[in-house]
Design goal:
Elements: E1 3-7, H1 20-25, E2 30-34, H2 38-50, E3 54-58, H3 61-70, E4 75-79, H4 87-96
Parallel strand pairs: 1-4, 2-3, 2-4
């Protein structure tokens, strides 16, 4: 099953509990992180990796789409506004496939 979560950092309050008891309840996933902003990718990567998830990066929707064609991904966390292919178009393609 693939989960898709487009995001905009200006509207999302991100918190990360990393105590051992909380981590035991989290299902470890392979997450595709899609964002054209390097600092945002680094921040989210650090949080997700600390929680034990495997993180794969894409700079835009077009790169993410190529990754999704051949990699096993459980969850997609995507920015909305990106060059080449935005998050909305990526969502459309995923729903259509």
């Amino acid at each position: 099953m693939l989960w898709l979560c487009p995001f905009s950092l200006q509207f999302v309050n991100i918190s990360c509990r990393t105590d051992q008891q909380s981590l035991k309840k989290v299902k470890i996933m392979r997450i595709l992180l899609v964002d054209d902003d390097d600092s945002t990718r680094r921040l989210l990567d650090a949080m997700l990796t600390k929680m034990g998830h495997g993180v794969v990066h894409a700079n835009d929707g077009q790169e993410a789409w190529k990754i999704l064609q051949h990699d096993h991904i459980n969850f997609v966390l995507s920015d909305w506004v990106m060059p080449r292919m935005d998050g909305v178009e990526l969502c459309r393609r995923l729903r259509a496939s």
